[in-house]
Structures are given as structure tokens and as C-alpha cells.
Amino acid sequence: MSKFEFNSKKTDFDLLNALRLAESSQLAYKSEGEVRKFLNAEWGMSRINTFDKDETQAFLCSNDEVAILAFRGTDSLEDWQKDFNAVLVDSKVGHVHKGFKQALDNVWEDIDKVLVEHIRDNRKLWVTGHSLGGALATLAVDRFTDLKVPIGGMYTYGQPMVGDGAFVDNYDRKMKERSFRFVNDEDVVTWISLPAFYCHVAVENECFFDYAGVLHRSHVWYHKILSASENAEARSSQLDKLMAQYPNGIHDHSLNYYIRYIKQRLQIENPPEPGQMTFKDYANRLFKKGIS
After folding, report:
1. CA distance 104 to 108
2. Residue 248 neighbours by CB under 8 Å, 6+ apart
3. Model's pTM, two decimal places?
4. Where are the domains of the chain?
5. How far is CA 95 from the centre of its chain?
6. For every residue of the chain, which 3-state class applies, written as one string?
7. Kind of pairing, strands 66-71 and 56-62?
8. 94, 64 in Cβ contact below 8 A?
């Protein structure tokens, strides 16, 4: 198995791509040195750029087949202030979250300057992020599509809502079929913005992990209700402990859960041959070397 496996030509839903982009989102939380070392040594990325300005961080990397842009998520008090700065401001179409727009503006020019080097020779760009990073990924993809940047797809994890109905309708018209938004059970950040004014993009492509970590991609609303009712008793029996460690159910927001459940699903759908190294073995080896 190669150091970096990715189905770069598959723009519909793909679990391997979901895992790689979740790993990229987690890597975005690391220092610049750790990011560069891992991308070069483990994934063989020949082109790497990092961005860090006014509390907005991201990296852009590419090899001969694929380019990945990953935004870092909520990691500081300043980041949480951006999440709660829920004033709507004008976008090209509709309105978007003021804090998220400002965060993307911080690094937009720097990304734009180097992007052409990563997407030349018909390479497509894949965009990802967790939490705040998922919101920035969504706004970035909306801008990229207007600029005719070739987008392979967007995968986000635990992202908040980013805009109003007009923004979402315009985004979905361009990118709904290539956008996949993961939600883990009661992840509080996925509904952190005001529902009366904000909407989620690509609702039909929501990927929902229930209380048991089972992935649902259809009739998500039903599985959310079922999951909430099934885990109520179990959660209540551990309420004191959970509230002490993870106020308001924020534990479901951890990217570690998203990665764990994606890996479990991959193992179910791709059982190894007898004696063959499992995907779980391979992924765990990579994580021990620097992602987790």
C-alpha cells in the first residue's frame, strides 16, 4: 500500500477520500513544522504552502494527481469568538456569517497567489476542514467556483452553518453533488448559528453518525430522532461525568470520533484478505507517526 491513497477522479461520495480529508483536517491543527514533515515524509506531497494570519490557519499541498486545501478549526478563544460573531453580511449571492468571512479574508490573497502552482496539469482541488475550518472550506469553495477553479470535492466535519437561504441555494446549485458534510450524533457546533437565519449547504448529502457510530446517508432526519431517543437513557446514566468533561455535549464535536467512525466503516466495506495488513493497521501506523 502506498503512502498516500486517494481516489482523485471520484467526485461522488467516497469513504477513502473522506478519511484522507478528515486526516488532513486534523493535520491542520499541527504546527507548520509538523505539517510539512508529515506531508512530505508520509504522503509524499511535493508542493506545500502553509498560511497563518490573524488566527486563521490552513495548508495547501499537492502531488502529481491531487491538490488539498485544509483549514484549521476552532482552537482558541479568538476562534470561538469568530464562531459566535453571527452577524450576516453581504456575499456575492445572499448573506454569510461575518466572523467566518473575515477569517477567510485573512488568508485569501495568500492562497490565491500560490493556487495556480497546485492545480496546473489538470489537477483538481479538494477542500476540507473541521468545525470553523469546515465553515471556511465552504466559503472558499463558493469563491473558487465563481473563479472557475476545478474542484474535485469538499468534505467537512462538524461544521457550523455559514449563510442564509439565498447563499445556500446558490452554493448547492454549483456544488451540492460534490459536497459532503459529516455530523456526529449531537455535535453542538453543527447547529451553533441561528437556525432562523442560517442554513446548511448540501443537506441532501449530509453524512450522519448515530450514537453507535453507524453511518447514515439517507433519511438522516429519521436517524437523528432515533439516535437521540435510543441514547437518552445511556447518556442520562453518565450525565454528571459527561457534563464535567464535555459541557453541552461538545464531546461529539471531536474530530477523533469522526475519523474513528470513518475508519470503522471502511473496515466493514473493505475486509482484508487473510494475512493482509488491514486498513486499520495501516491507518493506525500513520497516526502513531504524527497525526493523532
Report:
1. 6
2. 188
3. 0.86
4. 15-291
5. 22
6. CCCCCCCCCCCCCCHHHHHHHHHHHHHCCCCHHHHHHHHHHCCCCCEEEEEEECCEEEEEEECCCEEEEEECCCCCHHHHHHHHCCCEEECCCCEEEHHHHHHHHHHHHHHHHHHHHHHCCCCEEEEEEECHHHHHHHHHHHHHHHCCCCEEEEEEECCCCCECHHHHHHHHHHHHHHEEEEEECCCHHHHCCCCCCCECCCHHHEEEECCCCCEECCCHHHHHHHHHHHHHHHHHHCHHHHHHHCHHHHHHHCHHHHHHHHHHHHHHHCCCCCCCCCHHHHHHHHHHHHHC
7. antiparallel
8. no
What is the tens place of the pLDDT at every residue in 80-100? 555 566 788 999 999 999 989
CA–CA distance, 2 with 149 (Å, rounded to integer)? 28
Q: What is the rounded distance in angstroms from the CA atom of residue 232 to the CA atom of residue 241?
A: 15
Q: Which grid cell sits at 135?
A: 465553515
C-alpha cell at 150: 476545478
Degrees to nearest 5, angle at CA 149 with 83 and 108 = 40
CATH match for 15-291 among 3.40.50.1820, 2.70.50.60, 1.10.10.400, 3.40.50.620: 3.40.50.1820
Q: What is the pLDDT of residues 201-221, one digit of tens each?
A: 999 999 999 988 999 998 888
